[in-house]
Amino acid sequence: MSTPSSAFLKQLRKMIHPSDPRIGALGDVVLSTSLIARGRDIVPLGSTERRVLAIGEGIAMRYRLLPDGGRQIFMFLLPGDACNPNLFNATPMDHAIAAVTPVRLEQIPHDSMLVLLKKVPEVNQALWSMADQQTAVMRDRIMGLGRCDARIRVALLLWELVMRLRVSEAQVMPVVIPITQALLADAVGVTHIHFNRIVSEFCRLGILATQRGRLFVTNPRSLQVIASEITCAA
Amino acid sequence: MSTPSSAFLKQLRKMIHPSDPRIGALGDVVLSTSLIARGRDIVPLGSTERRVLAIGEGIAMRYRLLPDGGRQIFMFLLPGDACNPNLFNATPMDHAIAAVTPVRLEQIPHDSMLVLLKKVPEVNQALWSMADQQTAVMRDRIMGLGRCDARIRVALLLWELVMRLRVSEAQVMPVVIPITQALLADAVGVTHIHFNRIVSEFCRLGILATQRGRLFVTNPRSLQVIASEITCAA
DNA sequence: CGGACTATTGAAGCGTCTCAAAGCTGGTGG
DNA sequence: CCACCAGCTTTGAGACGCTTCAATAGTCCG
């Protein structure tokens, strides 16, 4: 069985096929892990990696800084998500990736991945799927930013995180989102201050509960209702 | 030489390597084209394609409709751009692609692509690069939508289009952008009406000139200046 | 020549930002 | 073990960017 305690390999396996025999080859991959402290960069701006990096545990973010000190967060990366699914990319990163919580990072040298790729071509396909999923998340973000008011954008983001957390971690009901309000605000493109007013409202509605540094989603159902007030047809 | 009159194959060739000998194999690909009228869908919502579709000539858009009748445009596709660079994707589209101008569409069956892929593995790499370029464009869009006011978003979009048009078509100075103001507005997330006020301002500044259905960029330089008033460090 | 689409202009309303300030909470060092 | 400090959260009031609604004008096509 070679249970891959790796979140990344687990996700890879899931994308290939429920029970492909060649999946055993995944165990042969050279995988190392390291711990990244909260707030530190995992992949700095302008870097070119020669390993596949993936989130093993914790939460990270793709982001970019602006000259005025602002910051835009493109998306949050959850356990199993790859920072750079494109094995062949030689161009320097146009953004950075940092740890939102303490992160256990999984690293696989490109060489090792390429060997695997030759043995199991379906891995390439799986990597494509992972990349596609991430761009789908970004499309949803563009959708929200371009067409919805802040209230709905917040609901959309939280709903997205709840859904994605449910698969990576098997969460129980009060879903925990261990991300600062300021960071969440930087993702939906509002001031952390206005974000907070919206959170307060959701708390009053019994949808959320707060604690320093984290949010509890007590009622995902109504979150989705709010989100779908304007959400897309897809 | 087998000059591929195909914009897509040209782009593919460019991404592989300036002068790889195996590039000749690109000519063996099964390529057909068809004409799409302005406004028609190229790839409808929910479809699953078994061919690679690419823009040969003209401009298309990735977009999604909202229940309230609104529309968000994720990005514009220019000659050479692929609608679906992921050969292995079997999941239905979560958005649609339509022709902004009359479009000459290039179609290559997946079978044929896979044959090519086996002969020239670098093609896979090239497809990855194309996908990466598109997500880079989307990241820039998120950046703008989340962090910049409308004036700058407009400058950013127009600057992006000017840059990308310069490579696909060898444009001369008054760069023509044959896209309706209403559509451009739907891309940057403002009312077409407010978009028009910004265009008017840019006209007064001598940056733009207008004509029914198209924009002329007469002074790209100052466009970039405005765009970089807040733009990212990258 | 009529009809449909595109562009343009004005005025009122509101969503969000900005600035300013003050609680809180948890972790750190004394 | 306590005090302090940095980071996170919360609250208020004024300003402004953008939307909305309404209406007119220009331009292409059948």
What does this structure look like?
The structure is a homodimer of 234-residue chains. The first copy, chain A, is of the alpha+beta class and 234 residues long. Chain A has two domains: 7-137, Jelly Rolls, CATH 2.60.120.10; 148-227, Jelly Rolls, CATH 2.60.120.10. Chain A has helices at residues 7-16, 110-119, 122-147, 150-168, 181-188, 192-204, 220-227, and strands at residues 32-36, 41-43, 51-57, 60-65, 71-77, 96-99, 103-109, 175-177, 208-211, 214-217. In chain A, the strands form three sheets. The first copy, chain A, has a four-stranded antiparallel β-sheet with strand order 2-6-4-5. In chain A, strand 9 (208-211) and strand 10 (214-217) form a beta hairpin. In chain A, helix 4 packs across helix 7 (220-227). The longest helix of chain A has 26 residues, at 122-147. The first copy, chain A, is globular. The N and C termini of chain A lie far apart (38 Å). Chain A binds a DNA duplex (30 and 30 nucleotides) through helix 6. Chains A, B: This is Crp/Fnr family transcriptional regulator. Chains A, B: It comes from Tianweitania sediminis. Chains A, B: Pfam families: HTH_Crp_2. Chains A, B: Keywords: DNA-binding, Transcription, Transcription regulation. Chains A, B: Residues 148-221 form the HTH crp-type domain.
